[in-house]
Write a structure and sequence with these properties.
The chain is mainly α. Helix content is about 55%, strand content about 5%. Strands 1-3-2 form a three-stranded mixed beta sheet, with helices on one face.
């Protein structure tokens, strides 16, 4: 590993460890900031040092009562503050869009470090605006569900649901959803069917615009696993560490799905496009293949949450169903039920941003936020509770990750409307280099 890559690795894994993450944990319940490690490079000192295990085992600053002594010993042993400073300076020395990408990553890590210090009581609260700008490149703002609600009302009316006013929309959505709920026992079979469908659509509508060398990369090598009592609805875990007999990557992933998740079949269909193909699993697999070919740098193998790259990744995933069908607008999808499911899924991601904004900008209590998410963004009761609580009030995810969904989704949708597929799709999937929500516009032109 080069000296610079070692700095990158120690900076990312150092912050990950401080927050209690373990990049080698195969479960989303054990990982946090660093979301992948598939380079075959040795793990850095920030992971292997003896003091790191104690921080991971006690949960770092994510614990209800952080172990200050363990954290202090770790920070001193791996020289974390110096590493973050070195990374910031070295990132600024990189040329072109890579320099912009790395500088943005360095800023996000700095904010996450300051948030950790805030939790430890060692600095004033980090401003909400700084958090959102770091992870999205834009200032915070509320979500507006009006246009999606209007289209949803029309589609439900056309489907025979007696709703003529916005006030009756939630009841109509609840009825529609209850009539199409996915039985948990059917998830594996239904997932396999939808993956096969999206594989065919991706072959037809995405792959012709990407380099031919990516054609042989498995885009959906994933295994679904139920998980109980998780604070998230689901977790895509891109592992990428398995190798064939001749040493080639298998591009493998798992998806842990919350057993308590209330989701309709059309929403589940959108979920498969988002998490698997041509969404997250496909995106990660292509990045791994491009790294193996020397087309992207080491930093692309350690994907990180709460960053501008993560915001772009969520934007790609939320637009994945449109990419698969080769269309730009929800109204162009071939099935009315599917349009309704996609609208509800996107309203849920608008709700994530709204939860963040109302909690951290406006200071609303959880009960009021939950009611707003339920009534205005039409999420299920289970989702309203988690998005306003465990997610929305989390000191890091609530301020840096929840706004990323809407920011990335709107940006990718705009790029696809304004640019030809041959120009925008290769850039979105890493073929022009690593991109984030700030650099992608420069890559597309």
């Amino acid at each position: 590993m080069t000296s610079f890559n070692d700095t990158v690795a120690n900076a990312i894994i150092g912050i990950d460890t401080i927050w209690g993450g373990d990049v080698l944990n195969p479960s989303g319940t054990g990982r946090f900031i660093a979301d992948s490690w598939f380079s075959d490079q040795p793990l850095p000192l920030a992971y292997t040092h003896a003091t790191a295990a104690a921080v991971r085992e006690t949960g770092g600053v994510s614990a209800k009562q952080p172990n200050h002594d363990a954290i202090d010993r770790y920070v001193e042993a791996v020289k974390l503050t110096q590493t973050l400073s070195d990374f910031k300076m070295q990132a600024a020395d990189q040329q072109g869009r890579r320099g912009v990408y790395l500088t943005g990553l360095a800023e996000c890590l700095d904010v996450m470090w300051d948030l950790a210090l805030e939790i430890l009581g060692r600095r004033d609260p980090v401003s909400y605006e700084r958090c959102v700008i770091a992870s999205t490149g834009s200032r915070p703002g509320p979500s507006d569900p009006a246009s999606k609600r209007e289209l949803l009302l029309r589609r439900l009316t056309e489907s025979g649901y007696p709703v003529s006013l916005q006030d009756g929309l939630l009841d109509a959505v609840d009825t529609w959803r209850s009539e199409r709920v996915v039985p948990s026992a059917s998830i594996p079979a239904l997932a396999a069917a939808f993956i096969a469908e999206f594989n065919a659509l991706t072959t037809r509508n995405l792959m012709p615009y990407l380099p031919s060398g990516l054609a042989g990369v498995p885009r959906s090598n994933i295994r679904f696993m139920p998980i109980r009592d998780a604070w998230f609805s689901g977790s895509m875990n891109y592992l990428g560490r398995a190798r064939t007999a001749d040493g080639k990557p298998e591009f493998e992933a798992t998806y842990e799905i919350n057993s308590s998740l209330q989701i309709s079949v059309p929403e589940f269909q959108q979920l498969i496009s988002h998490e698997v193909e041509p969404g997250h699993v496909t995106t990660f697999a292509f990045l791994q293949a491009l790294y193996e070919e020397g087309q992207i740098g080491f930093e692309g193998t350690v994907q990180t949450m709460n960053t501008r790259a993560a915001a772009l990744s969520e934007g790609i995933a939320n637009n994945a169903i449109l990419i698969a069908h080769g269309v730009n607008e929800i109204e162009e999808l071939p099935d009315r039920d599917l349009q309704i499911g996609v609208l509800l899924a996107l309203l849920q991601d608008d709700a994530k941003n709204q939860s963040s904004y109302l909690t951290w900008k406006e200071g609303w209590p959880q009960e009021r936020v939950a009611a707003t998410l339920r009534n205005e963004f039409l999420v299920s009761k289970e989702r309203a509770d988690k998005l306003s609580g465990a997610w929305g009030r989390h000191p890091l995810l609530g301020r840096m990750y929840l706004p990323a969904y809407r920011a990335g989704t709107e940006l990718v949708a705009e790029l696809r409307r304004n640019h030809a597929p041959k120009d925008v799709l290769p850039a979105l999937y890493g073929c022009t280099g690593l991109e984030d929500v700030v650099t992608i516009g420069q890559a597309v032109g």
